[in-house]
Write a structure and sequence with these properties.
Length: 426
């Protein structure tokens, strides 16, 4: 099969790394890809949000299958346009991608189908939102309805903070159109967990649990990032917790989307709070998590590509995946200054010693090559150093051994990825 992966991050590198190893794959392309992805796929300079460009390439180069990595093109209808052009595609329609593209839509799905989530109201009027916040008190959570590059959520400890978040979104239009509508919801207490499943419109195949560390600083302090590291499985996801997620959240969500006339096909990434009264939905995402995808795919023993195809073909009921029992953990190496401003184009002088370690894979999240062919950092999150181990502690040890061998002057990482899981396991 001739296959195209859309995207340029660590998630897409892991997808390419996995797909390239499948005997079903005869040619692999990635648009636009990065310097690490170029080791596994032919990179083509088409932006991940350029729907017309991607469809044209897929037609002209006779792609048999396209895997769309990021949410923005999915929400904008890339999978619909590819399928209209007769190209088999992994990823939800724009209508189904509303699960991530509109927090209001996803909350209404939960409410209308009895799926546990925080109590909430939707607002298009700032005064009404503020009156509701005054009535409910703090802590309280204010969310922009639309896609806001992970920045649209304010967990407000005080009423004043929540009111300011309403003004920022609705008056100052910090998130543009994405903040024209708000969801204001109850604050949930508990431990966070991510859960992933392949879905074919009707059937869900649970993949694995994972946890990421969103804050830039050790001890989970400081500003939020896209994720500074992750591990899978997550010890908080006991068998009972997983079964409860499948029965009360995953399967009802898949059934709800079908009943709404927008069956979900692709990967469903459910962000959960494990509360005293059981798992509740924080949010849905319609794509693999990044860096969660990288740790999950390290654990898949089977050929993963047939799972992606079975999801696109509506045949997941016949599909089964085998997993390594080990834990995978990754540490994100980021450019100094991230998530604030940082230098671009700094040289990464040597990765060879780190990649030579057993059970270690380095996925590239933001790399390129300069005119001399030198590997350089092109983004905030740059490398995902990923290792397998018998448990979280061993995976952590191996990942940091590899991190120590990476020669990149301008990089930094957190030194405590996995601490919560290790606390739980010891
Ligand atoms: P989201 O972008 O919806 O995943 O929200 C970003 C982060 O805000 C989540 O990972 C949680 O840490 C936090 N969060 C969102 N909603 C709630 C809530 N209702 N209660 C507590 N924390 C929340
Ligand atoms: N790591 C969180 C996300 O991909 O949204």
């Amino acid at each position: 099969m001739r296959i195209l992966v859309v995207g340029s991050g660590g998630r897409e590198h892991a997808l390419c790394w996995s797909i390239a190893s499948s005997p079903l794959c005869s040619a692999l392309y990635c648009a636009p890809g990065n310097a690490g992805i170029a080791q596994d796929a032919t990179c083509v300079p088409i932006g991940a949000e350029d729907i017309a460009g991607i469809v044209k390439f897929a037609r002209e180069e006779a792609m048999d299958f396209v895997v769309v990595g990021p949410e923005a093109p999915l929400v904008a209808g890339m999978a619909d346009r590819l399928r209209d052009a007769g190209i088999k595609t992994f990823g939800p329609s724009a209508a189904a991608a509303r699960l991530e593209g509109s927090k209001g839509f996803s909350k209404d799905i939960c409410r209308n189908y009895g799926i546990p989530t925080a109590d909430y109201e939707r607002f298009t009027d700032a005064d009404a939102a503020k009156a509701y916040i005054q009535e409910k008190g703090a802590p309280i959570v204010v969310k922009a309805d639309g896609l806001a590059a992970g920045k649209g959520v304010t967990v407000a400890q005080t009423v004043e903070e929540a009111l300011a978040a309403v003004d920022a979104a609705m008056t100052d239009k910090t998130f543009g159109d994405a903040g024209a509508e708000l969801v204001v919801e109850e604050f949930m207490e508990g431990e966070e967990l991510s859960f992933f499943a392949l879905v074919d419109g009707e059937t869900a195949l649970p993949l694995a649990s994972a946890q990421d560390h969103k804050a830039v600083g050790e001890g989970d302090t400081g500003p939020n990032t896209g994720g500074m590291g992750a591990y899978s499985p997550a010890p908080v996801a006991t068998e009972a917790v997983e079964q409860s997620i499948i029965d009360t959240i995953l399967n009802p969500t898949v059934a709800a989307m079908k009943a709404e006339g927008c069956p979900f096909q692709g990967v469903l990434f459910i962000g959960l709070m494990i509360t005293a009264t059981g798992p509740k939905v924080i949010e849905y995402n319609v794509r693999f998590g990044d860096p969660e995808c990288q740790v999950m795919l390290m654990r898949v023993m089977s050929d993963f590509l047939p799972g992606l195809i079975a999801s696109a073909d509506g045949q997941l009921d016949r599909f089964h995946l085998r997993w390594y029992p080990e834990t995978a953990l990754n540490v994100v190496l980021a450019s100094k200054g991230y998530p604030g401003s940082y230098d671009k184009g700094t040289p990464i002088t040597d990765l060879s010693k780190a990649v030579a370690l057993e059970d270690v894979t380095i996925f590239h999240a933001g790399t390129g090559r300069d005119a001399e062919g030198q590997l350089t950092a092109t983004g905030g999150r740059v490398l995902n150093v990923t290792a397998l181990g018998a448990d979280t502690a061993e995976a952590q040890k191996r990942a940091y051994e590899a991190v120590d061998l990476v020669e990149w002057e301008n990089g930094f990482c957190r030194g405590d990825i996995g601490w919560r899981a290790i606390d739980r396991q010891t």
